[in-house]
Specification:
The structure is a single chain. The protein has 3 domains: 156 residues, Jelly Rolls (Sandwich); 48 residues; 58 residues, Arc Repressor Mutant, subunit A (Orthogonal Bundle). By secondary structure, the chain is of the alpha+beta class. The N and C termini lie far apart (53 Å).
Length: 277
């Protein structure tokens, strides 16, 4: 018989305000392959995986969920979730509802398409959630303390979401700058100065977004633009090289062959044989 290790759990509904109500919550270390469902929830249920991993089946999709990930189950949705066989998850959960909940979730990083939230707050979201659960019994008769601690969870989520949005804006502006200036002799330093950020920070943003450096992104963009010009036009190899921001035809041919395993001239003759990245 399976023995579930529940360290903290509460099941008494608390009506915190007209906008937000709490129904239950807890923290559990699950046994291997422990499964919940198939079930349909009446309210919004949020889990935070603090350790291990498992799977969530919902809306004909299987999500593999690991540490520092939250998953949201909306009312009326049928789902099943199961702890991993070798590394079963440990998670905490809260069940909430109210007329402001949908708006609050959307403003905190969840949306109707993606039920997952990846915590990159260095533990602030996790600690806020665990703190709420562990202090529930102490403050269960004080709705203001419970509300403050509950909103603290979503407050940290929103801080992270805003940081991610700011990062995305930097990357989008960098790409716009590349599109407009790739034909010039621009460098990563020029891009960083245009954005008003440090070059190292720009590198980190591109690695997070595209898993490549901004230098690599710039090079790939120039080479793909050159490839299009080789396919449809009569420009010389040298003119294509200069028009795509390369200092000379030799440097362009070297980079082109390094990436596509072919020379620009041979690609122009036999474009269908080139190995594209």
């Amino acid at each position: 018989m399976e023995i579930r290790k529940i360290y903290s759990e509460f099941n008494t509904p608390v009506y915190l305000s007209k906008a937000l109500n709490l129904y239950y919550g807890g923290w559990e270390i699950c046994c291997p392959m422990h499964t919940f469902g198939s079930a349909i929830r009446q309210h919004y249920l949020i889990h935070y995986v603090t350790r291990g991993k498992g799977r969530l089946w919902m809306n004909d999709t299987c999500y593999v969920i690991e540490k520092d990930t939250m998953f949201l189950i909306r009312p009326g949705i049928t789902c099943v979730y199961q702890a991993d066989k070798d590394d079963p998850w440990e998670y905490c959960w809260i069940c909430i509802d109210g007329y402001d909940v949908e708006n609050m979730l959307n403003n905190s990083g969840f949306d109707k398409v993606n039920p997952l939230f990846f915590d990159k707050s260095n533990g602030e979201v996790r600690d806020a959630m665990l703190n709420f659960i562990f202090y529930f019994s102490k403050y269960k008769n004080n709705e203001y303390m419970l509300l403050s601690r509950l909103y603290n969870i979503f407050g940290h989520m929103k801080i992270q979401m805003k940081k991610q949005q700011a990062k995305s804006i930097h990357v989008e502006r960098a790409i716009d700058y590349i599109y407009e200036n790739y034909s010039k002799n621009i460098s990563v330093t020029d891009i960083a100065e245009y954005l008003g950020i440090d070059r190292t920070y720009l590198y980190r943003l591109f690695k997070e977004e595209y898993n490549m450096s901004p230098q690599k992104y710039l090079l790939n963009f120039r080479l793909k633009t050159a490839m299009n010009k080789l396919e449809g036009g009569n420009m010389s190899i040298a003119d294509i090289a200069y028009s795509c921001g390369f200092n000379d035809a030799s440097a362009f041919c070297h980079q082109f062959k390094k990436v596509y395993k072919d020379t620009p001239l041979n690609y122009r003759r036999y474009p269908q044989l080139a190995i594209r990245e």
